[in-house]
Design goal:
The structure is a single chain. The chain has 119 residues and is an all-alpha fold. The chain has one domain (1-107). It contains five helices and no strands. It is elongated and about 90 Å long.
Length: 119
Amino acid sequence: MMNRVLRQSTALLRSVESAGPSFGRASSSGTTSTATTVEEARARIFGTHIGDGLRSGRKILRRALIGERVASYYPPQWFAGDPLLVDVDAERKKAKLQRLTRRGKAPPKKGSGKRSGKK
């Protein structure tokens, strides 16, 4: 790794030296070509991003992913596949909804409430 950095930095020095006496002076466009070369070489060597001053999502994208930690927070659902273990509350709610539906007192389906016919 150190050899690669050394090779890249020597290549950078050669490119700066070949620029000659105009190094550090602004050209007619307002930026120096060697300054941009130096910045590009720096970005290549150190793996940084040449920004344009605007906000980007690079800072957040560099962070480590946390999906595994979030998934490990919740316990595994060991009862999901076992037919002998039932959720008592869910069964009670289902039975109540069936009772109300038979009497015509169940809540309306989504999007077909009282206000949907007024338009």
